């Protein structure tokens, strides 16, 4: 698989990406000291280029990813210029040492705003809704572009949980957190915000219904991202709850 990745990188000379050595990656991040976050398959660190530009460095866990994941992300993000998709600057690929260099978002992560609990950084309901739309549009843009770079087994056999419906599920969980202002782990069965004005009830109800459709246990019951956008942009009264609006297995 490493040979396949190298062949892909060498055969795509039209990339406008910078290839960094792993030693440069460590210099840029100051020895991987400033950790921004961690996921199941990678860790993200803050770094600074020689130009003074701040970057977010995603260090991939080689034990949990494969070469096709790397190819898919590099090929997809590099060719997308979308306001709701983070820009890719460069990459590192040295066997087990793999990294992706992204633009740094100075406003921080979304949880800083939706879980602030009156600390002066909270967003109102309309702002949260606009962000939800932006996230959905970004995911849709990725889905339109990514298919051509994914191996067939990733599309049809859903290896390691990679599928478009998995993205929809993740968006639904995020939407729940955004509308409730609580982390999913602390949400329980109550998904409503403590106080919702009459003007915001339509937006909140719409987001809840869409979120419940997205987190259906059966992937076939979840809508496509395109349908999610139609529901978010449409009239709330036209939306019906799914036949089994369950959050957790019985």
Outline the structure in words:
With 250 residues, the chain is α+β, with helices and mostly antiparallel strands. The protein has two domains: 2-103, Phosphorylase Kinase, domain 1, CATH 3.30.200.20; 111-238, Orthogonal Bundle (Transferase(Phosphotransferase), domain 1). It contains nine helices and six strands; from the N terminus they run αβαβββαββαααααα. The protein has helices at residues 2-11, 22-28, 67-79, 111-114, 125-146, 152-156, 164-180, 198-214, 225-233; strands spanning 18-19, 35-38, 42-48, 54-60, 88-94, 97-103. Helix 5 (125-146) runs antiparallel to helix 7 and helix 7 runs antiparallel to helix 8. It starts with a helix and ends in a 17-residue tail after the last helix. The model is unreliable at 152-162 (pLDDT under 50).
End-to-end Cα distance, whole Å, is: 41 Å
Which architecture of the largest domain per CATH? Orthogonal Bundle
Order of helices and strands: HEHEEEHEEHHHHHH
Fill in the CATH topology of the largest domain: Transferase(Phosphotransferase), domain 1
For this entry, give a set of tags:
9 helices; alpha+beta; 250 residues; Phosphorylase Kinase, domain 1; 6 strands
Give the SSE layout:
Layout: H1 2-11, E1 18-19, H2 22-28, E2 35-38, E3 42-48, E4 54-60, H3 67-79, E5 88-94, E6 97-103, H4 111-114, H5 125-146, H6 152-156, H7 164-180, H8 198-214, H9 225-233
Helix pairs in contact: 1-3, 5-7, 5-9, 7-8
């Amino acid at each position: 698989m490493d040979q396949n990745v190298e062949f892909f990188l060498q055969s795509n000379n039209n990339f406008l990406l910078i290839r960094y050595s792993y030693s440069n990656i460590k210099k840029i991040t100051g020895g991987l000291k400033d950790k921004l976050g961690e996921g199941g398959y990678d860790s993200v660190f803050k770094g600074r280029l020689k130009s003074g530009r701040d970057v977010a460095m995603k260090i991939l866990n080689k034990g949990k990813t494969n070469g096709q994941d790397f190819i898919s992300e590099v090929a997809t993000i590099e060719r997308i210029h979308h306001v709701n998709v983070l820009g890719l600057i460069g990459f590192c690929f040295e066997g087990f040492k793999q990294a992706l260099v992204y633009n740094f978002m100075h406003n921080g992560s979304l949880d800083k705003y939706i879980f602030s609990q009156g600390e002066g950084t909270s967003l109102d309901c309309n702002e949260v809704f606009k962000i939800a739309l932006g996230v959905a549009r970004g995911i849709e843009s990725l889905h339109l572009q990514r298919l051509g770079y994914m191996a067939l087994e990733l599309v049809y056999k859903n290896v390691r949980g990679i599928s478009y419906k998995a993205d929809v599920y993740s968006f639904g969980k995020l939407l729940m957190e955004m509308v409730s202002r609580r982390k999913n782990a602390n949400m329980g069965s109550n998904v409503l915000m403590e106080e919702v004005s009459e003007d915001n009830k339509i937006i909140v109800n719409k987001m809840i219904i869409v979120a419940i459709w997205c987190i259906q246990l059966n992937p076939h019951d979840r809508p496509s991202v395109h349908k999610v956008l139609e529901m978010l942009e449409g009239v709330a009264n036209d939306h019906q709850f799914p036949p089994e609006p369950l959050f957790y297995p019985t």
